[in-house]
Structures
1.
Amino acid sequence: MRKNLSKFLKSEYIKNISVQLLGTGVAQIIPLLVMPVLSRIYLEEDFAKYTSFIALVSVLTVATGARYQYAIVLPKKNVDALNVFLVSIYYTIAYSLLLLFLAIIINCFFDGLFNLNKSIFLVPIFILLQGLWLSFLNLSVRQKKFKLNAISKITQTSSNAVSTIIFGLSSISIGLIFGKILGLLISVFFLFKRLPLKSYFLSKKTIKIISKRYIDFPKYNIIPSFFNAASTHAPVFFIGKYYSDLSLGYYGLAFMALAGPLSIISVSIKDVFYQRVSEIYNTNNFKKVFETYRQSAFMLLLISIPLTLFLFFSSEALFSFVFGDNWKISGTFTTILVFSFGIKLIVSPLSIIFNVVNKLKTLSLWQTLYLITTFSTLGISILYFNVNIIMFLKIYVVHEVIMYLYYFFLQYSAIKNLKTNNQ
């Protein structure tokens, strides 16, 4: 056991994770460092609008590229992977144009919907850039260019941080949104220059072949992923409608502070884990796929426990000191929310295993169940029991822990059955 652990820690897999952790860590530390500045130059209402914007685009992003960008890592041949990459780009552009058309309709007939007003036109721009970024990012993962991957994230967050401060000092209330978009634009351009392609065009026949070959990604993944994103951001929709803008602003800052550490670890490990298990899976070494999954889960558990406990005991004092006394309520929210982030830190990076072992139907069923139980639980809590914001968050967290424990069980069962059936 000790010999296997030592070998695992010295493996290329861990080295790649270390590169990702370092790069993503720096990338997420940058916004965390500027947040004390942002909390003093932006109002709670500005954070509320930014939180609403991010919730909306996070839900809409799930359909960008028709999810084909997540198939870039899978083909055995590089030429097939490049074709999948281009198909994802085409679908991203088409989807963004559709959203622009919808934004025009909303502006003309439903002004004020989502509490964004004219900012609704920033949604298709963000979706386009996010879709392009995800495609380039998965291509870099495919090519094992994890250092480039990490640098792109640092480029994005550093340019986002600088521009957001400049916009804030210029009294631009939606500067948080502008900064996010500018950071994405610069990062996309960075990857575009360093991942050159021989061609940017595919024949209709090739597009049709690729689309059909990986049809499971849009067929079984778009709607369930939409459900999953909607469920993840359900508190934003409920707080925005049934509680005050101040509460939404406090929740927004707490969410941003927690999302930083979560992204540092979750995204880093997910990218490397995806590439690694896909590579092993293509060699039909199913026992090793299971072993890599189990070791990764244990590693995430060891990371999650101390981080969760630290944030639980220190958040209120930390938020008051770092962001100012008027943000202490965000610290209170964090002491509650941290348990849901703790369980997600363990389970979410490993969920990509469903893509690898082609269990997208299982994934879609869980995501559908997650949506139904999230909205029904939160809706009943507010509409029938009229709970206050603190109790609302506690109910939300209990639900998250239960659902993600079940999510982990489904992952483990799928990978264990794969190992058993192919011994």
2.
Amino acid sequence: MYIGELAALGTAILWSLVSIVFTEASKLIGSMRLNINRLLFASFFLFIIILVAGVPLTMQPMQFALLVGSGVVGLIFGDGFLFRSFRHIGPRKSMLVMSLSPGVTTLLGTFVLGEEITLLVALGISITLLGIFIVVLDKKETPSQEYKTDRMGYFYAFLGAVGQSGGLVLAKIAFQMGYVPEFTAAFTRILSSGVLLLGIVIAMGNYKDPIAIYVRHPKALWLTILGSIIGPVLGITLSLVAINNTLNIGIAATLMSTMPILMLPIVVIVYKEKLSLNAVFGAIVAVVGIVFLFIK
């Protein structure tokens, strides 16, 4: 009972934690290298889990294609831009913009999956947007020394939200076609995305000395491994459990986007960031909008 909903909340907790870990790692090795390495590490860990647990790898060809597409849209496009936003505006503001994802997912669900947008859903989208804009446009908030107001950072985070939503919808379609274990689905998405992205950057000559950089920055290695387990392995698998076990993809996306509230105490403790009343109020308003989406 409530397996999907609990999995979605678990995903939100894991993604809140991993945003801090990956932010620190990206400072040392760069966002592109981090994106590739975390996918490769996660693929290895998921493969071990599948072997040990005896999880079947079989699926229909169309399901495979949809899951690969889901990985490209969500993990390469979406997460690639999200990591860029981390470096520009920090994890909390990035995640606040990412809370647009439930609205985007609901819209995509309507046009792609045939779900209905009610007045309550439209109201929830509007309230969520309002809360995000209150925080993003807040002039009284004191930024940390590392992260300043950067419009491109906000734009990158928005593209991350669009990519995440598109990836969820494609995965949902794959699940609707027949049973696929969530670990298998996660492994398919992550491995295909990692191999494709690795091939692209190697062809562009942007992936040099992959081992040497960890020798220079051993802390980055442990951060990448830790983040890979928290995020791609556990977080992505739980997100697939969520969309596969909730009646409406908007509900899963909504619960996974409760990160703004979870991020507030984290950044105060980790980054000593000072939050204005407007920032806190905006986060609360965004979550109120998310609740409206949840009860549609």
3.
Amino acid sequence: MSETLRLARDLIAKPSITPEDAGCQTIIADRLARLGFELEWLCFGDVTNLWARRGTTDPLLCLAGHTDVVPTGHEDDWTHPPFTPTEDDGWLYGRGSADMKSALAAMLVACEEFLDANPDHPGSLAFLITSDEEGVAVEGTRAVVEVLEKRGEQIDLCLIGEPSCSELLGDTIRVGRRGSLSGELTVLGKQGHVAYADLARNPLHELAPALTELSRTRWDEGNEAFPPTGFQATNIQAGTGAMNVIPGSCQVRFNLRYSTEQTMTGLQDKVENVLSRHDLDYQIQWRDVGRPFLTQPGILTEAIRKAVVEEL
């Protein structure tokens, strides 16, 4: 068994459902400490962050990733238990095997092999590992970067091990990301009995046409680097649970993944215009998850392209 596979299995076995780290970062930290990295734990609330650096000179290459995984859902629906790493027909199964514990293992083992061959390399290496990527993503990487900025610590190059391939390993190198804008919408109505619907106002019925319009809107055509902007409703809640009571309000959570053709404020205005045009009595809370960005070609993109060609 390869060392990368062994480490990936150890990490997958940890039930690190966001924002819980479940000891994954300790496994990583122990190995980094043996390589001469200085470790710094930056914890905020329930979130565990590890900043580990080796060297003090420029440039600083940061290998970044996360140990948290999304919830499993009903474990009985899994072919293989989510936190029991299982090899089946050449594939490794388990929550985090793709996103992104295998990548963390690969980056760490690659770092060990590199330092063994190049102990006096120029520049510095760092790992930024968080347990808050799959959740609200406020107390994780964003919070750590704010700490680094306040003390003048500059990351020059950053490589993230998130899965990015479309069909074959290495066929896609992502050099940017779409923006992510989430909203929590409450539509107000008037509760009542279904037998006397004329005395009530059903917020679900009032919301439906607006939600349909938002889901069918063609926001833009995207561009060379990004697909078109998309709207997705992710959760709807309403009512008391009774079959004969019209709800007094309903709550909808949604997300917009947007290209550089849009701005956050522009999308907010467009969504709120649709809601107002449908004459909804509503309240909305916005959450800026991340703005879109695109990295221009340079030394890092060329190094990665060369590595893909040589290794694959």
4.
Amino acid sequence: MWSKILADNFAEIWNSLEKKNRNGGYQQRAIFTAARIDLYLGLEANDTRFFIFAARKSAVAQLRTPASSTGIDIRKLDRPDYGEKIVYRLTLTDQAYIEFFDKVVEDICRRASAHDSESVAYTATINRIAEWQRFFAKNALGGLSEEVRRGLFGELSFIRELALGNVLEGSGLACWRGPFGADQDFQFRECAVEVKVSISAQNQEIIVSSERQLDGRSYAHLYLYHLALAIRRNSGETLNQAVDSVRRSIPAHLTEDFERGLLEVGYVDAQRDLYSEEGYIVRETNYFEVRDNFPRITETDLHRVPGVGKVRYAISVPVCKSFAVAKKQMFDVLGGSSRG
């Protein structure tokens, strides 16, 4: 409800500014006046939309300043009317992403207004802008690839398992490392879990993308969570529904970490239409412990073959069956590791 009201308010503000700007000029309006930093929406003579945020120099003097990047232009403004405040203006430079502008600003305002400290609100604003910059740098207008969609669905499914198993109470969502390029998708103090999804009905294979994914030397336990999926149009659970389900199932204080992970993967609500028809049906769920003679290639193996690296290989799901563990056994270990 909150985000819908905010989006509606944005539309009203833009309409009002556009009416005032019919003869050209410069218009801006304060938003979220209760926030600890100043937040404004504005419109220039050429109808370019912009967002301004400002904070007292004394509150941000020791903090880093933002820089422009692909898709986002950030400029420090000389605004004497703001007194002793540092003022920045944000605009989207790539018109192909103009549909994202309101979502970007809405998201930044949400982060800024959630904090009571001016310096913390400013830091949250800068950090979120940096996350959006990474999004624009590495993601396409066509949304996530089919492989990334399936992988994200698998990770979302496991987050729900963690929430139901009360594991998140001890670990939070700091354990979700897949979006940030970690070797395993979920990392705890003494154990890790790699999530894999397969879609073939027969001769199921799990694709391993590096020699480090199933290398458990850093952990007391390494597990593999495997989902066998069928993909159906207008049937099963969509990626959007999985995201919404996790949003409902995790504690409120973990929401920011979850949204950060989604953005890092490249999932944004502005592209939900791209994921509204393709559905996933879970045909089989497996829990494997990667140990002893589990079929895998590790860095140790590659040391015996100088010059070989960055391997990608497939392992057979039926061959992994002898390494299956009970779900409860696995989650007892995860819960103990998260509380340590």
